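User: For a benchmark we're assembling, each entry needs the component sequences followed by a predicted structure for the full assembly. Here are entry 17's components. Please fill in the structure.
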Amino acid sequence: MGLDHVLLSRIQFGFTIAFHIIFPAFTIGLASYLAVLEGLWLATKKAVFRNLYMFWVKVFALAFGMGVVSGVVMSYQIGTNWSVFSDKVGSVIGPLLGYEVLTAFFLEASFLGIMLFGWKKVGPRLHFVATLFVAIGTLISAFWIVSANSWMQTPTGFAVEDGRFVAVDWLQVIFNPSFPTRFVHMVIAAYLTTAMVVLGAAGLAAVLGRGSDEARTMRRMAVGLVAILAPAQLLVGHESGRIAHEHQPTKVAAMEGWWETGRQPTILIGWPDDAAEKTHVLLQTPKGFGGWVVTGRADDVLKGLKAWPREDRPPTVLPFWGFRIMVGMGLLMILMGWWGAVLWLRGALDRTRLFHWAALFSGPAGFIAVITGWICAEVGRQPYLVFGQLRTIDGASPVAAGAVSASLLLFVVVYAIVFSAGALYIGRLLVRGPGQAEDVEAATQPPGNPLAMPIGGEGAPPPRPQTPATE
Amino acid sequence: MSLDLPLLWAVVIAAAVFMYVLLDGFDLGVGALFPFASDEERDVMTASIAPVWDGNETWLVLGGGGLLAAFPLAYAILMPALYIPIFLMLGALILRGVAFEFRAHGRRRGRRFWTGAFTVGSVTAMAAQGFVLGAFVQGVRIEGRAFAGGPLDWLTPFTVLTAIALPLGYTLLGAAWLIAKTEGELQAKARTWTVRLTVAVAVAMAMVSIATLAVNPAVSARWGVSMAAVDLARLAPLSPAPLFGALALAALFITARKAGTHFAPYLWATGVFLSGYAGLALSIFPDAVPYGVDIWQAAAHDNALVLLGVGVAIMLPLILGYTAYVYWVFRGKASVEHGYH
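Assistant: Structure for entry 17:
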């Protein structure tokens, strides 16, 4: 027997959305970073900010393009593969997605044109406004999509009429119980993802022996952000887990690998086994610690997965390991942020070689955390599409397994090509690094029209002095 | 007060799809013209669409997202019915979408690959949309609230015809756009392309119209045209749509050949599309899924339509405003120097 169309559709959705999330996770943060850089440049007229802007905007254009095209897929795939879900839930989820298009996508897409190609077509303030609108657009987009997803996790404010969901209270739909925390969690995740890439790029520059004002500025901005946001993320994530436990106890039990009901340990390393209904534990805390982490009370008796019938449980291996990898990446980011902060205070930030290497290798930490975190959230929601209300198996389209296999194969091939090329081009840019002559030249070419930026005029700083080889 | 919300929404979505066709139509069409241009000319052609293509494609997302939001049942029936052409379109749009950026980053081999991918992707996406259009017009087999046909229902001689006709139309938009945005030798080439494509599109539109009447008794009854007889009483009130199309084609043919015109050919090309689109709407209305589910049956719950309606009333004027602003910023002839690469 081959794979059925439901499983194939799940694999396809998982694959395409995991590919897609890489780019928003990066561009939400990068758009804000670019807005900050351009704002700083306008305020201080220091060339280093402009050079950084010119460099990162290229990376942004590549990543944003891949995010756009892989996102278009999403707005159709819900119908092609999950048509029953669309029919049943369209009146609730549809408007949220509609608002995402109306309030975010057009804003981003339109002002992206000015941001990328309007450098000499509009004045510096208008250009900054364009960058700002793109950054705001990415955040609005995250607002709606996380709201829609959170409603599927913790549905409220609806009624079911003739088997179809209708909203009763839109505010309860949009601001469903898990939404506010998950939105903050996602935005911080995006900022951290970008900051780790920026820190990694600064590390790469140092490792390649290309110390520059730009690399040093990048490093300081990234360390400052990570040192504050990474620990904050731990607290937000903890709150998110507490809410999940309240509304989706099966998800948290799967993440923790709890099967029996009782006072729970926190399992650090182990392997959950759905068939045997137990977790093979390698390392765990004493009982009670798990309850203390989740609810704040060590003596709480918390349900294990066996408390629910088999057909109501999510699969455990992916949530369990997804959660551990995500938390591991989070701890790594805290370490990098605080280590960097200490080095900075001691004035050793730019000459600690080990830190540069560590920054380089932890560059992808944010991506890994985002993907594993979402795997945890989505697989943990199973066996439901809308938690407790609509089962995944009841939401799929009446399409042939052969057709789904074909589309899945198409995506694997196309994304393999696009991802390899995109990674190659972004990699080349990162190796080349910021502050190169051609960026500076691109920004300071003779203006094409009277509104062009007043670069090289009274505001321009003197040429950058050669820096000693401290890195 | 009773407002016919589904009708209002049908107009909004039809308008969004039409905006998509007019805007992404020309940038897809430019991709199809790539093989007929030199490499330097391709850079100018890319520069003429690079700042706006992303916004153009967003209308497609509004079409899909809006259909889910306002007519979930139509979305739920049509998407599985059009499964293969939809994915063909999505895959193709991915390849050509990244090609904008990747072409600029590739070295020799990479650049050649992405130049090819831009053309192949654009043409495939256009053809896939042609299949979607044809499959929509020929009708979808429905049982209960779901698509009940097979995975290859969309592939018939009629849809093959629309899959040839629509790309010709988009390419015509692209060629006319290039008359507006380029100068010199490239503009002269664009005029030649436009003139030839105008003839091809005139033939294709006539063939699709006849085939539509032949394939669908319901449509031919509505227009009062059949093999046996023509019912002028039915045809006359609907005839402005095809007549305007003929006028637009003639005007397009003339303005494209006349030196010194810039935007006129593109505007007449949109007129051609307007006529075809109106003809389609007159044939299908009020069905959301031909031929069986109308817009009132397919509509979402009223409170969803109201909530979205508020959003559209506020946001759509803003969107149209700043879209126009962006086009205004990049007005005039395209040049390759304004990029950030």
